[in-house]
Design a protein that fits this description.
The chain has helices spanning 2-7, 28-31, 33-36, 90-93, 97-103, 209-214, 234-242, 342-345, 353-363, 387-393, and strands at 8-9, 23-24, 42-45, 48-56, 63-65, 71-74, 78-81, 86-89, 109-110, 119-124, 141-146, 151-154, 163-166, 169-178, 184-185, 192-193, 196-200, 205-208, 218-219, 229-233, 267-271, 276-279, 288-289, 298-301, 304-305, 327-329, 339-341, 402-403. The protein is α+β, with helices and mostly antiparallel strands and 405 residues long. This is Phorbol-ester/DAG-type domain-containing protein. Keywords: Metal-binding, Repeat, Zinc.
């Protein structure tokens, strides 16, 4: 008998009708039943003196917002006025009158364009497992909610614009819309949209709010010059919680790299319109670029030795460069060679900084002092010569150096 009493607490008699099940001892304090056992079933309170408040027990209301502290409460005991829809959790209901005046906080309500009822502001504890209807991540902290509809938003997500113009779909503006009960596929990530998203009714084009917000890094590249490519760091982003919130759980095989044929499970670029994807390492650096510091186009070269001094400098940053590393060089300036680090030439407007960071990490950035030049050829590197660099084999030892005279 003693073990049974320690394992669960059951309220008998008049209290029993309020309980759906026995409450385990380790949940007694969390649910408020511990306080409820020592409190009257009805009471008057300073914060709501016009009516008597009635006690309710855990699970009677799935959610309620305490009108004292404004906390969002889940499956716990409290007091309420049925007529006025006034609620107090056990903590606030137990405070003496002299502390109640400073406790009461003004109720804040607002209208959200994708919901028919006003949303009420509340403080959300970490234990609540509901998801934000916009970003699909678990709610916490300041939250706006409609308790009757089980509708929750982060306070920050409440500020999302109702209409946007997005690079994914420049033809028409995208409008916020709730897809609850009528899911669509997101054109960016190919996963289903079950809640609020951006949508073009004319083209039946939908984007998750998360995809529209975070996947904005772009790339214009010669391998796919027809359209702009968009940067996805898909599974890094998803691992933060977005993917886990979607049903059904997606496979990492949703995208296949056009170059190597393997799944795009890490960083990759995607043409939304053509459904073409390429790994970061499968995208070559552009063979020719235009830079604001030089009037002529610059050509990607395997390596360059420009004189007999044994010290080589970048024309853009004026720092030393390694002659064994590829560079961008002007082929037209015969008297005064313009040679620059790849990292100084490639900027965000030309290609993604992700590609540049990946390139520099593999290639290495430390200057290696060269006391004498190697005379292994005088021709400029061709695109085919640079193929090993472009396709991810650039960490192999470079055998030749181009000499400029």
């Amino acid at each position: 008998m003693r073990n049974q009493m320690q394992g669960e607490v059951t309220v008998l008699g008049a209290m029993a009708k309020f309980l759906f099940q026995a409450i385990p001892v380790n949940n007694v304090r969390e649910t408020g039943i511990y306080h409820a056992l020592n409190r009257p079933l009805k009471k008057t309170h300073f914060l709501h003196s016009q009516h008597t408040l009635t006690m309710f027990y855990p699970h009677y209301f799935k959610y309620f917002i305490c009108d004292g502290c404004r906390d969002l409460c889940h499956d716990v005991a409290g007091y309420h006025c049925y007529e006025c829809r006034f609620f107090l959790d056990m903590k606030c209901a137990s405070l003496p009158d002299d502390q109640c005046e400073q406790l009461k906080k003004t109720e804040s309500k607002t209208i959200y364009f994708c919901h028919k009822h006003k949303l009420t502001r509340a403080n959300c504890a970490k234990g609540i497992k509901e998801k934000c209807k916009v970003c699909q991540l678990r709610i916490s902290g300041a939250t706006y909610c409609c308790i009757n509809c089980n509708f929750f938003l982060h306070e920050s997500c409440l500020e999302t614009p109702q209409e946007i113009q997005h690079q994914y779909h420049l033809q028409h503006p995208l409008l916020g819309r709730d897809f609850d009960g009528n899911p669509k596929n997101c054109r960016a990530c190919n996963l289903q949209i079950w809640d609020i998203a951006y949508y073009c009714d004319i083209c039946d084009f939908a984007l998750h709010f998360t995809c529209a917000t975070y996947l904005t890094s772009t790339l214009k590249h010669e391998f796919h010059h027809e359209h702009t490519l968009f940067s996805f760091v898909a599974w890094d982003l998803w691992d933060q919680g977005f993917i886990q919130s979607l049903e059904p759980q997606p496979s990492k095989g949703n995208f296949c790299c056009e170059t190597c044929g393997n799944d795009c499970s890490g960083s990759f670029y995607r043409c939304v319109e053509c459904n073409i994807n390429r790994h970061l390492e499968c995208i070559p650096l552009p063979f020719k670029v235009q830079h604001e510091d030089h009037s002529d186009p610059l050509t990607l070269m395997e390596n360059v030795v420009e004189d007999d001094y044994g010290e080589y400098y970048c024309e853009i940053c004026q720092d030393k460069r390694n002659p064994n590393h590829p560079v961008y060089c002007c082929k037209m300036c015969k008297d005064n060679w313009f040679i620059a680090h790849i990292g100084c030439v490639i900027k965000e407007g030309d290609t993604s900084l992700e590609i540049l960071e990946w390139w520099n990490k593999d290639l290495g950035s430390d200057y290696e002092k060269t006391s004498s030049k190697e005379d292994d050829g005088t021709s400029l590197a061709s695109p085919s010569d640079l193929g090993s660099y472009a396709m991810g084999e650039h960490n192999k030892e470079v055998s030749g150096i181009t000499e400029l005279d």
